[in-house]
Each structure stands twice: as C-alpha cells, then as structure tokens.
Amino acid sequence: MSTSADEIVQDCLAVRIRLIGRTVTGLYDGALERHGVTIAQVNLLAALGKVGPCPPARLGEVLQLERSTVSRNLHLLLKQGWIEAAVSDAKGMREVVLTGAGRAKIESVMPEWRQAQEQAAQLLGAGVTAVREIAGGMGYPPGA
Length: 144
Fold this sequence. Notes:
Blueprint: H1 4-11, H2 13-32, H3 39-51, H4 56-63, H5 67-80, E1 83-89, E2 92-98, H6 100-124, H7 127-137
Antiparallel strand pairs: 1-2
Helix pairs in contact: 2-6, 3-5, 3-6, 4-5
C-alpha cells in the first residue's frame, strides 16, 4: 500500500531540483573559495556588469532573488570595493555600479569558474540543454 508520503518521496521534482541546485552550487563555491567569493556573489557581479548601473531591485529581478538576499550580498560586495553606490540616500543604495576592482574580480575567478562549469556540465549531462532552455524561458540571461 503506497501512501501520499511515498508518492512525494518517489516523485517530487522540487526536492530533486533543490538537491541538484545545492550540489551544483557547492561545486562552484568550492572552486571559488580561494578567491573569497561565492557563486551567488559572482553572479551578482556579472549581472551588474551586464545590465550596467541599476537599482538593486533590478538585480533581484534579473536573478530572481529576494530583496533581503540582494541587499545582504550587495553590502558584502560594497565592503570589498567590487561595487559602489552610484546613488544613495538615507534609505540606502538607490543605484549600484560595478567598479574596476569588481571587473578584475570577475576576471580573476574565471579559470576556477570554468573548471566548476565543466564539472557541473558533466554532472548534468544532457540536462544542460534543458536547464538553459528553462532559464531562457524565465528571462535569463538578461538581454537574450
């Protein structure tokens, strides 16, 4: 006799996608560790480099991140000097911009990012195409 719990454990796509996501994130974070940056932070830097100076909310839209996640990571990037507040007021950063140090950070992580990218592609196999198509349907990458 199969229960509803059995069905969820056997068939749930959400848990499988989350497990895969954590594994892939771990590949990138492990590769980037010596640079003192996470893949989430590299993706924020890269998105900012792609879209140009913008409000933090725009980065949240591009990467589909919650406001608190964007804010927390942007503050870390600001402390490192990889971004700067182009416009700010008492309520916080209104517009952020990638600095030269931020562009240099992106360039410096590329060998390790490429290594993690290759490992992730090997892990996902034929699923890489599906991942790109699904993300494309969700509007990523920006400007595509």
